[in-house]
Design a protein that fits this description.
alpha+beta, Alpha-Beta Plaits, four-stranded antiparallel beta sheet, 8 strands, flat, ACT_dom, GcvR, ACT-like_dom_sf, Amino acid-binding ACT protein
Length: about 170
């Protein structure tokens, strides 16, 4: 089996997911994992598809033909399944605070400096109900190598939280 990673983006409309799913299914592919969302009127996402090695080229060609059917971009990459690293652990980090420039940069810089790999990142801004203004909320799932000193990581995240005035919780 071959793993394909599809990135899709286009003006949001009914049927975009169905069009991609139809092509995947018609060429013997299996839709494994995905993260899809509508953002500011644009539908975008990443999809992991597995397919028999001998059917991958025809699937890739068929997927690329969707670009003329409402998708602005569609890239097909060959993926390599991540190795399970027994000693690594997953850490969930939640961030909440007044929206401001640089929050993702600051948090991701700390994680990178400790050799954490971001497995998943979801962010959202919304109106603050009582105080006015905008709130920023993020949920990060990161892979933590066994060699990482969690106390030092926690201290660095707490330092950044104080500097950028957000609440950060680790689970």
């Amino acid at each position: 089996m071959t793993t394909l990673i599809l990135t899709v983006a286009g003006a949001d409309r009914p049927g975009l997911v169905a069009a991609v799913a139809d092509v995947v299914d018609a060429h013997g592919g299996n839709w494994e994992n995905s993260s899809l969302a509508e953002l500011a009127g644009t539908f975008a996402g990443v999809i992991e598809v597995s397919v028999a090695e001998d059917r991958a080229p025809e699937l890739q060609t068929a997927l690329r033909s969707l670009q003329g059917q409402g998708l602005l971009t569609l890239a097909v990459l060959t993926g390599t399944p991540a190795a399970d690293i027994e000693d690594d652990q997953l850490l969930t980090i939640r961030v909440l605070g007044n929206d401001r420039h640089g929050i993702v940069r600051e948090i991701s810089t700390v994680l990178s400096s400790h050799a954490l790999s971001i497995e998943e990142l979801a962010t959202e801004t919304r109106d603050a109900a009582m105080a006015g203004g905008r709130l920023f909320e993020a949920s990060v799932t990161a892979r933590v190598p066994a060699s990482v000193d969690l106390d030092t990581l926690r201290a660095d995240l707490e330092r950044i939280a104080a500097e950028i005035q957000v609440d950060i919780t680790l689970a």
